[in-house]
Amino acid sequence: MCGRFAFTQQDPAKIKKRFKVRNIGFELVPRFNITPDSKTPVILNIAPTRLDLVKWGLSRSYAKDEKFKMINARLETVAVKPMFKSLLAGHCCLVIADTFFEWRKPGQSKQPYRIFLKSAEPFAMAGLWDERAREKTYAILTTQKLFLFRRLFVQTARRQSSYAAHIVGLRDKRPRCVRVSNPLTRRA
Q1: What is the pLDDT of residue 130?
Q2: Is residue 24 part of a domain?
Q3: For 124, which of 68, 135, 178, 185 could close a Cys bridge (C-beta 3.0–4.6 Å)?
Q4: Is 124 among the domain residues?
Q5: Is pTM beyond 0.85 here?
Q6: Catalytic residue chosen out of the listed positions 27, 102, 121, 135
Q7: For 4-17, how does the pLDDT look when each residue is reduced to its tens digit (9 = 90+)?
Q8: 185 neighbors 46 (Cβ within 8 angstroms)
Q9: Parts of the chain with a pLDDT under 50
């Protein structure tokens, strides 16, 4: 995880209310298959009341090869990995989505599972961002445990069911989802 996700919400008022943002600098267009290198809705810690489009695939400002990008960062090791360690203090972000996908390989082919909240509400995945050549990029923080998803649904091409029935057997890295509406606006 996370190699694909979706953001289908089109109502700016709902997004503003849910994530406590005041400004959305672009038109909300449904995206059902977001892939790495796509620009996606993100709330950066430097502008916690604004929703921006940021490129998925973290490219560090000091990297010699700008083609080298990380789409995920493991929460369990991010504090010790040189690529991510310096970003923890001041380069956090929230990646807005309403679905993410996991795959299971029961045989020769992979079976995608669509994972979303029962309410179909958008949620935020924790991330780290950096800027290189005036372009902001991010990686999604992943973890072995699913946080927030008590009201989770898993959908295959054939049927939709509750979380417990299908989550076993999926890959062990899932996005670190954030519990509050927008923790970047909270004051310590």
Answers
A1: 93
A2: yes
A3: 178
A4: yes
A5: no
A6: 102
A7: 999 999 999 999 99
A8: no
A9: 148-152, 156-172, 180, 186-188
Go through the chain and tell me how many residues it has. 188
160, HSE (Cβ side, Cα atoms, 13 Å)? 7
Q: CB-side exposure of 61: number of CA atoms within 13 Å?
A: 11
- Angstrom distance (rounded) from CA 136 to CA 53: 9
At residue 14, the pLDDT reads: 93
Q: Give yes or no: 2 in active site.
A: yes
**pLDDT on residue 145:** 61
Residue 188 falls within a domain, yes or no?
no
List the one residue out of 143, 168, 141 whose CA is nearest residue 154. 168
E strands present in 58-133:
72-74, 92-97, 99-104, 111-117, 123-132
The CATH number for 127's domain is 3.90.1680.10
Tally of CA atoms within 13 A in the half-sphere of 151 that contains its CB: 9
